[in-house]
Write a structure and sequence with these properties.
alpha/beta; six-stranded parallel beta sheet; 8 helices; single chain; globular
């Protein structure tokens, strides 16, 4: 029988360091600056990772995210794409984390894919029974909905502890992003949760209907204004 356990809390660093015990820390990427570094709200996520890691020396950190289809990818001096998970791992390494304690995923280009590839790349093959999952407060409700969905269709017993980091985003942009999150949650519930109830059905939808992964779309057009694009 599937058992899905979750918790979401705003907590102090003292509580984190003294109470969270885990072997697996997942952090969702969430945008980059033009130079390939992480933006302010992603730093908040990564700093929360660092706080947890202090008291969980043996924990592995999983940086999840390839990029976004809302804007063009960033390249390094050799012309290679700087994936968002690479930006995250670079930040953690600069803060003293050993690269052997980090694993990256770079196939996902939205939160649905974050969930799917977290399960297929790490949670399922490594037979995890617990993990901590970190993202920004504005992004947490949809993240929980998506990871809950995958725990159900994969029928896996896993305890996921959800921790929200500070948004650290200007009020105008936060308002717009929060409204987009509400619409995306409702769309996911209506189109996916209610209609797609097996792994086989999901994979078919993912590679046939999802514009970032199907073979029917040469490019994805987006009508977002430039300021909103910068938040991805």
């Amino acid at each position: 029988m599937n058992k899905f356990i979750s918790s979401e809390t705003k907590i102090s660093n003292d509580f984190i360091e003294n109470n969270i015990k885990t072997k697996h820390i997942f952090v969702l990427a969430g945008g980059q600056l033009k130079d390939g570094n992480v933006n302010a709200w992603v730093k908040e996520r990564l700093d929360l990772v660092l706080s947890i890691k202090q008291n969980n020396k043996d924990a592995i950190i999983y940086c999840i995210g390839g990029g976004t289809y809302h804007k063009k990818p960033i390249h390094n001096i050799y012309g290679h794409v700087i994936h968002e998970s690479r930006s995250c791992s670079n930040y953690l390494i600069e803060k003293g984390i050993n690269y052997t304690d980090i694993k990256r995923e770079w196939s996902s280009y939205d939160t649905i894919a974050n969930g799917y590839f977290s399960f297929t790349n790490f949670i399922l093959p490594m037979n995890m029974n617990e993990c901590v999952l970190i993202t920004s407060e504005f992004h947490m409700k949809r993240t929980k909905e998506i990871f809950s969905y995958f725990s159900k269709i994969f029928d896996i017993d896993i305890k996921i502890t959800y921790l929200s980091s500070e948004n650290n985003m200007d009020n105008e942009l936060l308002k717009v992003r929060s409204e987009r999150e509400k619409k995306s949650i409702q769309s996911f519930k209506n189109n996916i949760v209610k209609n797609i109830t097996s792994v086989k059905e999901f994979i078919n939808w993912f590679y046939v209907e999802h514009n970032a992964y199907n073979c029917n779309t040469i490019c994805i057009k987006t009508d977002l204004d430039e300021k909103i694009k910068k938040s991805y």
